[in-house]
């Protein structure tokens, strides 16, 4: 997992978008890589994943930690250590399986 932050971000977003639209299942190997890293090294540090206490503007999803598949209520993450803001974001943000692409548009109403 010695990948540069922009590469990790593009990989997560690109694979999540493809998984939700044209290639279901393509995200599985990236998830396995993340889970393997955590199993072998414990959780990522915030700096390793470029954690921010705020999220970028929506593009395909609402990218807040609260909407990530790794979110643990009330302020945690399965793969990033420390206290996590529900409105935060990191480069390995991934949508839950039950949230299709562009679903956040309907949720903003």
What can you see in these coordinates?
This protein is mainly α. The protein has one domain (5-107): High-Potential Iron-Sulfur Protein, Chain A (Irregular), CATH 4.10.490.10. Helices cover 33% and strands 4% of the residues. The protein has three helices and two strands. It has helices at 5-21, 28-41, 103-107, and strands spanning 71-72, 76-77. A two-stranded antiparallel ribbon has the order 1-2. A hairpin with a 3-residue loop joins β1 and β2 (76-77). It is globular and about 35 Å long.
Descriptive keywords:
2 strands; 109 residues; two-stranded antiparallel ribbon; mainly alpha; High-Potential Iron-Sulfur Protein, Chain A
Instruction: Tell me which CATH architecture applies here.
Output: Irregular
CATH class: Few Secondary Structures
Q: Treating each run of at least 4 consecutive H or I residues as one helix, how many helices?
A: 3
Strand content: under 5%
Give the secondary structure arrangement, pairings included.
Blueprint: H1 5-21, H2 28-41, E1 71-72, E2 76-77, H3 103-107
Antiparallel strand pairs: 1-2
Outline:
The chain has 109 residues and is mainly alpha-helical. Helices cover 33% and strands 4% of the residues. It is globular, with a radius of gyration of 13 Å.
């Amino acid at each position: 997992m010695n990948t540069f932050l922009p590469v990790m971000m593009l990989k997560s977003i690109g694979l999540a978008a493809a998984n939700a639209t044209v290639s279901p299942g393509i995200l599985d190997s990236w998830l396995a890589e993340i889970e393997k890293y955590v199993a072998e090294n414990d959780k990522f540090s915030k700096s390793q994943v470029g954690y921010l206490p705020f999220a970028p503007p929506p593009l395909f999803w609402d990218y807040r930690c609260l909407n990530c598949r790794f979110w643990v209520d009330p302020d945690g993450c399965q793969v990033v250590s420390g206290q996590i803001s529900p409105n935060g974001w990191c480069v390995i943000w991934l949508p839950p399986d039950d949230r299709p692409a562009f679903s956040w548009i309907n949720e903003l109403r």
